[in-house]
Amino acid sequence: MKKIILALGLAFSLPQLAQAGFAEGATAYNAKNYTVALKEVTPLAKAGNADAQHLLGLMYYMGRGVTQDYKQALDWHRKAALQGKADAQYVVGAMYYTGNAVIQDHKQAVAWFRKAAEQGHAEALQALGLMYRYHTAGLPQDNVIAYMLWNLAAAYGSVNAAEQRSAVVKNMTAEQLEEGQALSAAWKPNTPLPQRSRTGGS
């Protein structure tokens, strides 16, 4: 069975976020001026700003502008994740999956990945697809759900998911492919993702 490797290859450079007070910190971070970024985002994070909490969590995770500290990274990401920040939910899921700064817990990982995926988070959709494809983290082996998740992730810009989707198609029947496409077309962001398919389970 292939080993699932979840890299935190997410928004380590942040998109432009039009938010008063946060833009300066994000701009400084993207310019690698981590001292200014830390100064700008710390008070916002402490005041409960989810974007700032996520950015501060990334800084602790990467050791940028601060001493690398995975526990602090997890704490800040969890605060943002509990507010519904999809990027932070993905990071919390990945840290539970790998046991980084927390006791490894695949059920927690799946729960956080699902929260992010249900907002259309490409990396979370891809990660869940891998878990369904290779029957890991307590999820059933289901090529149709994997296909659906990768189809959605590809639509949100994941090149890896597009490649994985192409590979799994070789192991799917026409009926399974039809169901996967129908599930993809029917799903809308911020609604529950299906957990089992009709035709794809082993």
Structure description:
With 202 residues, the chain is mostly helical. The protein folds into two domains: 18-83, Serine Threonine Protein Phosphatase 5, Tetratricopeptide repeat; 113-201, no CATH class. It has ten helices and no strands. Helix 6 crosses helix 7. The longest helix has 13 residues, at 34-46. It is elongated and about 55 Å long. Residues 1-18 have low confidence and may be disordered.
Task: Describe this protein with a few key phrases.
mainly alpha, Serine Threonine Protein Phosphatase 5, Tetratricopeptide repeat, 2 domains, disordered N terminus, signal, Sel1_AlgK, TPR-like_helical_dom_sf
Structure at a glance:
60% of the residues lie in helices and 0% in strands. The protein is built from ten helices and no strands.
* Count of distinct strands: 0
What sort of overall outline do the alpha carbons produce when their principal axes are compared? Answer: elongated
Write the element-wise H/E pattern from the N-terminal end onward: HHHHHHHHHH
Number of domains: 2
Instruction: Note the main sheet.
Output: none
pLDDT under 50 segments (min length 5)?
1-18
The averaged pLDDT comes out at 89
Instruction: Please report the number of helical segments.
Output: 10
End-to-end C-alpha gap: 15 Å
Helix content: 55-70%
**Structural class from helices and strands?**
mainly alpha
Protein name: Sel1 repeat family protein
Keywords: Signal
Signal peptide: 1-18
Organism: Duganella fentianensis
